[in-house]
């Protein structure tokens, strides 16, 4: 089964009772031409390099389910998710748990707690020792659950075709489709004797 839209992915996760993992990633691209009007949009606020941003959705086992069209590198992760309609899909759709990083904080309140982000730090200064230990344990547990999306992103970025800016959105989605197919295919060779 091919999942082509974010709505299909959310429905699939809800029907199967699986947890989804979402993360945004930046892909470095060549600098736009000097006369281009929106040249500054490609500069990422995070890395200060020319990049485009895409949102990747994997399941808990790390299988890539969806890769969004690209946006300029200056777009924040939560803004990209809102533009794709993630908050609306989760608020109106079936009950599904989505793990994210701190770039999506605030989305949990809009989706009825379906988006799970790392915990906020309650004490800014002079935190008790017991709180620091508990806070670190919670963040480590959350990070351990969502590490699979980082592996999926690493597989995506291994493709050299992503170095060109021309048609980058279509290229990213095509590579994500190939990765998804590769991850679901039976890769064990059969030997006949």
Give an account of the 3D structure.
The protein has 193 residues and is α/β, with parallel strands linked by helices. It has a single domain (6-184), classed as Nucleotidyltransferase, domain 5 (2-Layer Sandwich), CATH 3.30.420. The protein is built from six helices and six strands. The protein has helices at 6-16, 77-83, 86-92, 107-110, 129-157, 168-184, and strands at 20-28, 51-59, 64-67, 71-72, 98-99, 115-116. Strands 1, 2, 3, 4, 5 and 6 form a six-stranded mixed β-sheet that branches. A hairpin with a 4-residue loop joins strand 2 and strand 3 (64-67). The protein is globular. The mean pLDDT is 81.
The tally of helices reads: 6
Count every beta strand, where a strand is a DSSP E run of 2 or more residues.
6
In the CATH hierarchy, the architecture is: 2-Layer Sandwich
The averaged pLDDT comes out at 81
CATH topology: Nucleotidyltransferase, domain 5
How many structural domains does the protein architecture include?
A: 1
Radius of gyration: 19 Å
Beta-strand content estimate: 5-15%
Q: Alpha-carbon distance between the termini?
A: 33 Å
CATH class: Alpha Beta
State the major sheet.
6 strands, mixed
Structural class by secondary-structure content: alpha/beta
Series of H and E elements: HEEEEHHEHEHH
């Amino acid at each position: 089964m091919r999942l082509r839209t974010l709505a299909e992915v959310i429905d699939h996760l809800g029907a199967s009772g699986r947890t989804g993992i979402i993360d945004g990633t930046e892909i470095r691209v060549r600098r736009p031409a000097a006369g281009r009007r929106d040249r500054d949009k490609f500069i990422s606020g995070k890395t200060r390099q020319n990049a485009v941003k895409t949102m990747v959705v994997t399941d808990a086992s790390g299988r890539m389910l969806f890769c969004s069209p690209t946006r300029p590198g200056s777009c924040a992760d939560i803004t990209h998710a809102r533009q794709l309609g993630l908050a609306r899909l989760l608020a109106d759709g079936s009950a599904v748990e989505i793990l994210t990083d701190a770039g999506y904080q605030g989305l949990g309140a809009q989706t009825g707690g379906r988006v799970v982000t790392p915990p906020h730090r309650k004490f800014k200064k002079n935190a008790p020792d017991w709180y620091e230990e508990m806070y670190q344990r919670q963040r480590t547990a959350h990070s351990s659950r969502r590490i699979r999306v980082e592996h999926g992103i690493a597989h995506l970025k291994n493709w050299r075709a992503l170095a060109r800016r021309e048609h980058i959105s279509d290229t990213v989605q095509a590579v994500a489709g190939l990765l998804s197919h590769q991850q679901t295919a039976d890769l064990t060779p059969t030997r006949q004797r």
